[in-house]
Amino acid sequence: MATTPPGNIKALAFDAYGTLFDVFSITARCEQLFPGSGAALTQLWRAKQLQYSLLRSLMGRYEDFWQLTEDALLYASESLKLELTAATQQELMDAYLNLAVFPDVRPGLVALKTRGLRLAILSNGAPNMLDAAVKHAGIDTAFDAIMSADELNIFKPSPQVYGLACTRLRVSTGELGFVSSNSWDVSGAASTGLTTFWVQRSAGEPADRLGFSATCVITSLDDLAGLFG
Amino acid sequence: MATTPPGNIKALAFDAYGTLFDVFSITARCEQLFPGSGAALTQLWRAKQLQYSLLRSLMGRYEDFWQLTEDALLYASESLKLELTAATQQELMDAYLNLAVFPDVRPGLVALKTRGLRLAILSNGAPNMLDAAVKHAGIDTAFDAIMSADELNIFKPSPQVYGLACTRLRVSTGELGFVSSNSWDVSGAASTGLTTFWVQRSAGEPADRLGFSATCVITSLDDLAGLFG
Questions:
Q1: N or C: which end of chain A has fewer CB within 10 A?
Q2: CA nearest to A145, candidates A122, A129, A161, A167
Q3: Are residues B55 and A208, on separate chains, in Cβ contact within 8 Å?
Q4: Does B187 touch chain A (CB under 8 A)?
Q5: What domains are defined for chain A?
Q6: In a 10 Å sphere around its CB, with 0-12 CB exposed, 13-18 middle and 19+ buried, how is residue B66 labelled?
Q7: Per-residue pLDDT tens for A122-163?
């Protein structure tokens, strides 16, 4: 696996959830609400959210990521036999608009910008979710564009979504790098010919076996900035 | 939710894995091979197998279900830090060709056939996997057709796959019933207009929230035969 990216990268598109925003930062609050089940709820909620995005894309029955996130929360709480009041549901959904960013995100983005790279978000998240989250985290000014799969009515890893980033940023496939902590997302981007950076946020996590590897494997956005000299 | 199917059903198409064949019947052997990790291995293996079928379908990078099953096994064992020898890998893959059927399957199929219904399998499984499994279980003669998503190079819940069953069995959408224990599979079939039967094999398991409910919810194939009088 290569450890340095091609020199012609002009822009980087970042996945949002799990890459910039820590979706498990709400585990503690879930644990307060449902003692003994906080981790299980957060994990099943996240797994179902992803599964529903894939299933609905393949069924041709798109609903936006906010709706899927709510559907996944309802499924997860029902499956774990947790009583979700309307108030708790509202609180947990609102938490998705105020997720914590990983500690390396703000310094990493600043370092990448000083290297002259254009930065963007390319996410399955609905536009209103992304707007709220970047503003809450104070990283909205770091990005030249915030792009959502929502305008295509299909989710990543559909090739169309990665193609949207090149079109919108007016760069060629060879000029765009894609950054994600989700190994499947890296495979999806690599399958369309993009240069890919897998942020391996869990030590020892294996790469998904989907036939396409990351160009570079890194452990933080600081490492990423370091690759650009 | 309706409890009786429309009277014009002429044929039933069954999902295979989880519906006819118990994919968790290999848990005990996995536990012998990897003490303390048998259930975790079987569950992660199955979850990844499904996830890879969805991801590859959406990426447009089809590989057959045998390949995905192997990729999922390799991922799951690596993730759980279990050392998978070549011999163990072979044994576990071969187990997929010799899965146990649920106890209600043989009597249920016989009862349905005596009611004049044509029976078929519609599965994501590769043809060689399905052929081996139905022969091993001695249920091969129960079916008029064994259909695999493999001929379309895309997996369920793509609407194309459910459409294949109507074409092959020469029945209209209204004349075909689809039977699955996988709630997402029921939703996929219902989304194409088929009459659907959800075999709820785990008591209390919630239905997936994908916008399409089962026509009938049953707990076994015996119940299913009962619906046809």
A1: C
A2: A122
A3: yes
A4: yes
A5: 11-22+100-227 (3.40.50.1000), 23-95 (1.10.150.240)
A6: middle
A7: 999 999 999 999 999 999 999 999 999 999 999 999 999 999
